Amino acid sequence: MSEGMTTEQIYMTPTPVRIWHWLNALGIVTLCITGIQIRFPEYANIFGTYKAAIKLHDVAGVTVSISFFLWIFYYLFVARSLVKLYVPNVEDIKRGLFTQAFFYFFYYFLGEKNPHTVSLDNKFNAIQKMSYLLIMFLFLPLVIASGLLLMNIAPLRGWIIMIGGIKFLVDAHYLIACSFFAFLCVHIYMATLGHTPFSHLRQMWTGWEEMESHPH
What angle separates helix 15-39 from helix 199-206, to the nearest 10 degrees? Predict the structure, then answer.
């Protein structure tokens, strides 16, 4: 901690959000692992039979899909903060993205302070907002839709043919899933960039964020 700085506790993440976070994380990890066996059965045999991997993959996919709609419902109708927290504003686009990028790629390694100040109304910095916007509002709906089509090939054959056929659908689903795996790796790394390596992880368990602050 910097000299003259103190810490304060802010209740940043409510219980429903923490439950959703870990349920979603478990579902996505399960999807990634089972997806590897489904895509490369000759190299990976993690869950025994190919059929078992598909069944677990489908269960995890349905779980993540339901979790996504619960997340939307919570932030739209309970917290009523979906746009404020997850959609970049004009200032984020004009200055925040570049400022935060310089911090992550350069100033962080010099020990500089994060330019983004976390608050209940401004939880995520510009890069986080942009990342979550793409993941939660583009890639996740696409992977859910493509997964549902693959789970129901016979009854939805007309839709599958209309969008390019089964091969296109399988390849698109796989490529989108790869983007999730990449996001997961980056997300885990970014979670270590708090004022201590485990402060963000602890916050996702307890809900309380430990913030550095100047003494009055």
Answer: 110
Strand ranges (DSSP E) for 24-119? none
**Cα 180 to Cα 32: distance, rounded to the nearest angstrom:** 8
Q: What is the pTM assigned to this prediction?
A: 0.85
Domain housing 44: 17-79
Whether residue 74 contacts residue 20, with contact meaning beta carbons closer than 8 Å, is answered with yes
Residue 3 lies in a domain: no
Q: How far apart are CA 51 and CA 41, in angstroms?
A: 11
40-69 pLDDT, tens digit per residue, is: 988 888 888 899 999 999 999 999 999 999
Number of domains observed in the structure of the chain:
2
Question: Does residue 214 sit within a domain?
Answer: no
- Find where tokens 């997961």 sit: 184
**Rounded CA separation 64/175 (Å):** 18
Identify whether residues 130 and 176 lie together within a single domain: yes
